Amino acid sequence: MKRKFAAAAGIAIVATxxxxxxxxxxxxxxxxEESSGPVTLTLSGWSLETTPEFQTLADAFHEKNPDVTVExxxxxxxxxxxxxxxxxxxxxxxxIITQKExxxxxxxxxxxxxxxxxxxxxxxxxxxxxxxxxxxxxYGVPYRQxxxxxxxxxALFDQAGVDYPDGSWTxxxxxxxxxxxxxxxxxxxxxxxxxxxxRWQSTVQGFANAQSKDGDILKGDYGYLKxxxxxxxxxxxxxxxxxxxxxxxxxxxxxxxxGKQNAAMMPMGTWYVATLIAQQASGDADTFDWGIAPIPxxxxxTTGTDKTPVTFGDPTxxxxxxxxxxxxxxxxxxxxxxxxxxxxxxxxxxxxxxPALLNDAVVETYFGVKGAPSDDLSKFAFSTHETRPENxxxxxxxxxxGILGDLHTAVMSGSDNIDNAIKTAEDRxxxxxxxx
Amino acid sequence: xxxxxADDVAAASPPPASPRRRRSRLRLRSTLIGWSFILxxxxxxxxxxxxxxxxxxxxxFTNWNVFGKADWIGLANFQRLLGDGSFRISVLNTLYYSVMxxxxxxxxSLGLALLLNNKLRGIAFFRTAAFFPYITSIVxxxxxxxxxxxxxxxxxxxxxxxxxxxxxxxxxTSSEWAMPAVVIVSTxxxxxxxxxLFLAGLQTVPRELxxxxxxxxxxxxxxxxxxxxxxxxxxxxxxxxxxxxNSFKIFDLILVMTNGGPGQSTLVLSQFIYxxxxxxxxxGYASAAAVALFLLCIVVTIVQFFWNKRRSY
Lengths: 436, 313
What we know:
The complex is a heterodimer. By secondary structure, chain A is an alpha/beta fold. Helices cover 44% and strands 14% of the residues of chain A. Chain A has helices spanning 2-23, 53-64, 80-90, 105-110, 154-160, 171-187, 202-211, 226-238, 244-249, 254-259, 271-282, 329-340, 342-350, 360-367, 376-383, 397-412, 418-433, and strands at 39-46, 68-75, 96-99, 133-134, 137-138, 141-145, 148-153, 193-195, 263-269, 290-293, 310-313, 315-320, 386-389. In chain A, the strands form five sheets. A four-stranded mixed sheet of chain A has the order 8-9-7-10. A three-stranded antiparallel sheet of chain A has the order 3-12-6, covered by helices on one side. The N and C termini of chain A lie far apart (77 Å). Chain B is mainly alpha-helical. Chain B has helices at residues 2-12, 19-59, 76-83, 85-115, 123-135, 138-148, 155-162, 178-203, 207-215, 220-231, 233-248, 252-257, 269-279, 283-311.
C-alpha cells in the first residue's frame, strides 16, 4: 500500500516537473507597438560600468526625443559577438546592434540580420563609413573611430635626455629614440624601457597593412610584413622593449606598462586617452606629463605636421536588427543619424571617446577634458590622420586574421623565422580560405 | 536471516489470483517506478546532449552559418576537411598529446594510488592533496603554470640552469616544447582523479593472494606484476578508455594556456572545431570536424573493447 502511494507520487512529481520545464522556455515577446506614442529601443553594449559611451548616447538622444527611450542590453565583452549571434539566431536580439568588431559585420549581413540603412543622413567628413558598406549598400553607421597614435611619457623623455617626438618621425627615428631612451634611462638609474609593444597582432600588422604600398590582407601575399617584423624583433633582441614571451608569461597589461611608467613610449589606440586620464585621476596610474604624437611613418612622404600621417583603426558603429518591429524603424534610423552627428560627437568627446566625426568643435571639446594633454602636437595627432581600416569588410577577414594571428605568435615568440612563417601563412590562406 | 523473513511473509500473504498476471503487473509497476526515476535525468540528457548530437550529424552535411537556412551540400565538408592543412595539424597534435598524456597519467596515478593505499594516520590529507588540482579553477592553473614555465624568469628553468642545463627549453614559447609543457600540466591536473579510481580498484585485490605470493617467495615487483596488475584489469580498462576519450577531447587547458600557439603547435581538434564554428561562423564545417572527432573516439574505444575482450580468459 505504502509502496503504491510512493510510486504514484513519484510519477506525479516527475510528470509535473517535466511539464513545468517544457512550458517555462518560451521567452516574452513584446506586443507590437503603435508608431505614435512612446517607443523603446534596445541597444546592445558591453562593460556598461566602465564603458559610459552607450549610456551617454542613450541619454543625449532621449533629451532630444523624449518619446523614444533607448534601453541598454549588457553583453560580456570577451564573447560579445558569439552572444549577440546567439540572441539574433533565437530571435531575441537587440533592436540596435552595436558592431564591436568590423570583421563580424559580413557574418551578420550575409545572415540577413541587418537592415539597409543607406538612407540615414551622415554628416560630411565622417570617417569609417566604408567599413559598413557591402556591395554599395550601407548596413551600419559609425559613431566612433579610433586610430593608433604614439603615446609618450614626457617625464621619462626628460630623465633620459631625449627630444620629444615632433611629428616627423619615421620608424627609423622611432628605433633610434627607443635605443637612446633605454640607455639614457638605465644611465639615470631607471628600470624603464624605451618602448612597450603590446602582444596583439595589430601592433605590427596594423601598421604594415596601412602603410605598405601593397598592404592588403585579402590579396594573400604577405611579404610586406617582413620589414615590420624584422624591426620589431631587433628592438626586442636589443632589450629596448619587453620581449613577447615575457609579456605573455607575465600577462602584462598595456595600461600598466605605460601607466606605471615602465616604458617611455607606446603605440596604442586613441581609446587609451580616456582610460589614462581616468586612471591618473583615480591613482591607478602614476601622475606624469604625457602626450600623443602621430605614429611613425614608413618614409618621409607622409611625415611632418604639414602632411597627413597614415595609421590604422577600425570604427565602432550601430546597425539595425532586420527583425525589428516595423513601427520602430523610423525611431531606430533617427538614433543612427543622431549617433553619427555633431551633438553626439561632442557628447562622446567630453567623456574621452574618439568620435567618427572630428571637426574643430569636437576636437576642442575632447582636449577640454581635465587631464588631457594640451600641446599642439597632441591635437594634431588626434585630429589629422588618414586612418585605413584594420579589418577590411569581407567574409574572408575573420579566417585570414586567424591565420595571420598564428604567424604573429610564431614569429614574436621566436619559434619560427619570418620567411617560413610568411610562406606558411600564404599557403594556409590559399588552402583554407581560397583567393578569388 | 533475511531469507527466513521473506519466506514467512510469502507464506502469510494471501494466495495470488493467477501467478502470471500477478507477476506481469508487478513487473510493469517495477518498470514504471524505474522509468520515473530515470526520466528527469534522461530528459535532460535527451534535450541537452542527444538532440544536439543528432543535429550535429545532420549539420555536418550542410553549410549552415548560424543565420538562415542550412543547405544540404552532401560530403563537401568532409572533402574539404581532408584537404585542410590545419585540420591535419590539429589531428596530429591531438594524437601527439594523447600518446604522451595517457601512459604518463596512468603511471603517475597508479604510482600515487599504490603509495597512498595504506591505512596510515593522515593518509586522507595526502589523498586530498593529490586530488586538489582536479577541482582547481582552470584559469588559475593556467596563469600560475605560465609563470612557472616563463623561460627567463620562471622557477622551473632557474632550477634547470642551477643543476647544469645551460639551455633549458623554451616551454610555452617554443613550438617544440609547448605541447610537452601542456602534457605536464594536464597530467598534474588529472592524476588525482585517476588515483581515486585506482585506489578503489586496489581495494578489490584480495589480501590472500598477496599473502600467498609472499609465502611463495615473490618480491615486491613480482607481486605487483603477477597479483596486483591482473586484479586491476577492469579498473585499468575503465581508466584507459576514459583517459583516451578525454585526451582526444582536450580543449580547456589548451585554450587558457597557449590558445593553440605559438603558431599552430598546440592546435588540437576541439579547438579547431571551436575556431571554425565560433570565430569564423562556419558551423556546417565545424560540425563535420566534430563528426571526425566522434569517429576517432569511437573507433579507438571499440578497438580497446575488442582487445580487452580477447585478453580476458
